[in-house]
Amino acid sequence: MRAGQPVIDSHMNNKQSSPVTLETLQSMKRDGEKIVCLTTYDAGFTRVLEAAGVDMFIIGDSLGMVVMGYDTTVPVTMDDMVHHAASVARVGRHSYRVVDLPYQSYSNKDMALANARRLVDEGGADMVKLEGGTDMATIVAHIVGHGIPVCGHIGLLPQSIESLGGYKVQGHGAEAAREILADARALQAAGAGLVVMECIPATLGAEITADLEIPTIGIGAGPDCDGQVLVLYDMLGITQGRLPRFVKDFMSEGGSIPGAIMAYVDAVRDGRYPAPEHTY
Ligand code: KIV
What's the gap in Å between 133 CA and the centre of ligand 1? Predict the structure, then answer.
């Protein structure tokens, strides 16, 4: 085998072989076709994920924990994000690439736009992602207004883990659920093209997905989101320590890295993941 060649035969169908765009993801929502997403941080895994037919990548600041060894995502810098996003973009041909704006890189409109431009120009991002809802609407509108697509991130916000008091399910109870629904609506109204929903009850994930026109991508948000994402190292079973309930180790089912990714792709596409034991 030639160096750099994907280690699995292409798992993509014809429709999937052209590059995925935001329009593709929107039409998948309309057609009720599940969007398959994983995090990736480097060229090697990106090739395997693309060959397995993953629709969308999040080059997440989770890289701070799973790649760089920090306890949280907070120490991750813009330079770290650009470095990893560019590694993915160098080999990425097919999947839609969403890159995280790291902690304190979008504290005001000018800073947010300058850093979003860097992720696009130097990191090859198709879209940038930031954490927050109603409080972020002005910043989202500013970035989108300058032609850069934005993904929101609501529910559990890892960059605010100190103030949230740890990794806990968000949106329990009517008032908390109403606030998260309001966050989702505010992001859509501000022009966000996608919303990631992390660690919320499945009923709330379903309600927000039905309410929004833009696609929702769930991580611990139940089976009714338009798509699913997991942190790659978590679903490969190589993250140390106690993992959240929504993580499934696909390595034990797939037997190899390409096998695990293909098992995940198939399970998300046909609605077998997340199962009731992965939801809140
Ligand atoms: O940083 C990250 O990995 C994320 C997850 C939601 C996928 O934002």
Answer: 16
